[in-house]
Amino acid sequence: MSAGDITVIKSSRNNEDLRSQLQGWLAQRTNDPNATVGAVSSPEANGMSSESLFFDAAWDENVGSFVARVAPSDDDVPTFMSYDLERQYELISLVNERSDVPVPELMWLETDPHHLDAPFFVMRRVEGRVPPDLPPYAMEGWVRELGATRQAALQRESLTALAAIHAIDISDGCADFLHFDIPGDTALQRHFADQRQYYEWMCERAGRRFPAIETAFDWLVANWPDEQPSAISWGDSRIGNIMYSPTGTTPVAILDWEMAAIAPPALDVAWMCFMHRFFEYLLGPAGIETLPLMLRPAEVREQYGEISGVDVGDMRFEMAYNATRHAIIMSRLHARHVHFGTHEWPDDPDDVFLFKGLLAELMAD
Fold first, then answer.
1. Contacts of 9-12 spanning 24+ positions with Cβ under 8 A
2. Does residue 205 contact residue 214 with C-beta atoms inside 8 Å?
């Protein structure tokens, strides 16, 4: 696998049109008819759901670099069932107000879709570096070049940030908007019900079902864990969604909150481990050594416990559950690729998420 082997089309929107639309919106929002927006670009190494737009802007006496998070167009086969950007904006505000977790500075929330044909919000851009997805950080790039000692520091500092999210006091109901409005006696049961609903939505639009995912759902029901107290769950809690200082391993911004919910902390901790193992599984057949000292579940459990005082258990259920969740996402992403003409549907639907062997392994482990 190399960067040249990967073809990703994320949106049918035109960046010059977006620049013009953003400039018109900014002039209206700031009451400055001379407001300007520079060239618009999108990151190529990360992100496949919401669209991120990078741009410089100036108005009145203000100037700066910004990022707009834009809900995807319905015509571009969105990854998820819905995109509540107002919810994400509210959550980032909450995290900023109630913790020291680093998040980007929020600027504006725009719920009127007619400006960019979709709702969006704007944040001030943070300087730093993010472990890339394409090609995966475990294959090449700055994380591999850190060396074992600094990789260990990156892991511990990432878990420290994750524990700080989970430690936010939500006992006064400030995060109730993150609960799923769906039947279930516990937060984890409602989370699971939401994922089953997401699976059915994905299958209906794909026009096919995925036997390996359905087998995994049955296994999860049969192996339901003793539930832990719940907290704010970041959702997409992987190092590829953390921006680190330009030359170090300290998180300077936690990104991508669209999968956030209320759930036991073990779900986030296991997601961080699973996503690393996912890359290992994909790269292993090519003989690529994939940072074997990083994000091992047993060590992560111990470190997270030291940092937070919370024992997340062996995470067997959570690893298998996260693999199932990721299989649904990857299947939906394949539908996006089919839509943009870069892929076709295989004879075996389970081949689209690339790691059905790993999913089976996690259930048998």
1. 9/337, 9/340, 9/342, 10/42, 10/47, 10/48, 10/51, 10/76, 11/42, 11/51, 11/72, 11/73, 11/76, 12/73, 12/75, 12/76
2. no
Model pLDDT for residues 51-109, shown as the tens digit of each residue:
899 999 999 999 999 999 999 888 888 999 988 999 999 999 999 999 999 999 999 99
Q: Which of 148, 144, 313 is nearest to 223 (CA)?
A: 313
Are the C-beta atoms of residues 190 and 329 closer than 8 Å to each other?
A: no
Choosing from 236, 256, 268, 350, the catalytic residue is 236
Residue 112: exposed, middle, or buried by beta-carbon count in 10 A (0-12, 13-18, 19+)?
exposed
Are 99 and 162 contacting, i.e. CB atoms less than 8 angstroms apart?
no
> For residues 130, 199, 81 and 224, what is the CA-based torsion angle, rounded to 10 degrees?
-70
Is 112 marked active-site?
no
Q: Which CATH number fits domain 15-124: 3.30.200.20, 3.30.470.30, 3.90.420.10, 3.40.50.150?
A: 3.30.200.20
| Phi, psi of 101, deg, nearest 5 | -60, 130
pLDDT of residue 195: 98
